[in-house]
Specification:
Layout lengths: L1 E4 L8 H8 L5 E4 L6 H8 L4 H4 L2 E3 L13 E4 L1 H7 L3 H10 L3 E6 L2 H5 L6 E4 L25 E4 L7 H6 L4 E4 L1 H4 L4 H16 L3
Parallel strand pairs: 1-2, 1-8, 2-3, 3-4, 4-5, 5-6, 6-7, 7-8
């Protein structure tokens, strides 16, 4: 599974670039923590249904009622805030045919949950986009959950994360911190296919 996480801010012509990337086989995690629900609604309206069906929303999950998105993502803090109502929240989303994912920063916590379609585990390597985030080189071959590697994932890391038992990788800085995000993504996609699409 190849996941691209959006940049946090909305910037001019972002949707044009994303439309070009969304032609590819990927899942786009829409992570824009600073925007309002109306701003997110306006942003989503820039895309066709065939594009939003590849998107997973990190904020304003109610937008999944209005737009045909792939799913919703629970940040670690949001998951913890739900407390005893977590299972009910996840099941309610799944009844609406939404994929539900979440984030973990330690393997032991992840082991306790099997209700999610897939989980991010981070940081795997030193972060490209966040200063001071060093990697933990997690190994997940012993887990039954579908785990996606996040943190410092670049085109040269896909072989390593496959060997470590991950079901794919999520990229952020390796695309958005470059001068040519489309070329950067294409390089990453090629590396992903080379390592994860082997029969």
């Amino acid at each position: 599974m190849l996941i691209l996480v959006t940049s946090e801010k909305i910037w001019p012509d972002e949707h044009t670039l994303l439309k070009e990337i969304l032609v590819s086989d990927l899942v786009l995690h829409v992570r824009k923590p600073g925007i309002s629900d109306s701003e997110l609604s306006n942003w989503l309206e820039l895309f066709e249904a065939e594009q939003t069906t590849k998107m997973v929303l990190h904020q304003h999950h109610q937008m999944a009622e209005k737009f045909p998105v792939k799913g919703i993502h629970l940040t670690e803090s949001n998951r913890m805030k739900l407390g005893d109502s977590l299972t009910e929240y996840v099941q309610s989303a799944k009844e609406k045919h939404l994929a539900v994912s979440t984030s973990f920063h330690d393997k032991d916590s992840l082991k306790q949950y099997s209700i999610f379609d897939y989980c991010f585990l981070s940081p795997i390597y030193k972060s490209v986009s966040k200063a001071g985030y060093s990697g933990k080189n997690f190994q997940v071959n012993d887990l039954h959950q579908k785990v996606i590697a996040l943190g410092g994932i670049t085109s040269d890391k896909f072989r390593s994360i496959k060997k470590a038992g991950f079901s794919g990788g999520a990229v952020l800085g390796a695309v958005w911190e470059t001068s040519n995000p489309i070329a950067a993504f294409q390089k990453i996609q090629q590396a992903y296919k080379l390592n994860f699409n082997k029969k």
